[in-house]
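Need residues for this backbone.
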């Protein structure tokens, strides 16, 4: 069964990609999202201090996970592990 990801899953995917720094295109493809989704979620993550925007050159920009974002990602991973959440038992939701 092919179900949609939750907002939390999308955020976690984006944070994972940004752990080593990534540009918009890399985040978009790695997190499997559309450009409009990317814009919406990047704005959210930036405004909450979960990622930071780093200018590497002109016009090259990368996004890096902040300490706050790392903490959130660890918490999400812990919750998923506690709930034994995986693709196999997504039918619970």
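Answer:
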């Amino acid at each position: 069964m092919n179900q949609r990801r939750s907002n939390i899953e999308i955020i976690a995917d984006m944070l994972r990609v940004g752990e080593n720094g990534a540009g918009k295109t890399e985040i978009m493809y790695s997190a499997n999202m559309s450009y409009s989704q990317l814009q919406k979620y990047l704005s959210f993550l930036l405004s909450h201090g979960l990622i930071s925007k780093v200018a590497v050159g002109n016009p090259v920009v990368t996004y890096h996970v902040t300490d706050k974002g790392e903490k959130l990602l660890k918490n999400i991973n812990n919750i998923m592990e506690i709930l034994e959440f995986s693709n196999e038992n997504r039918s619970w939701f």
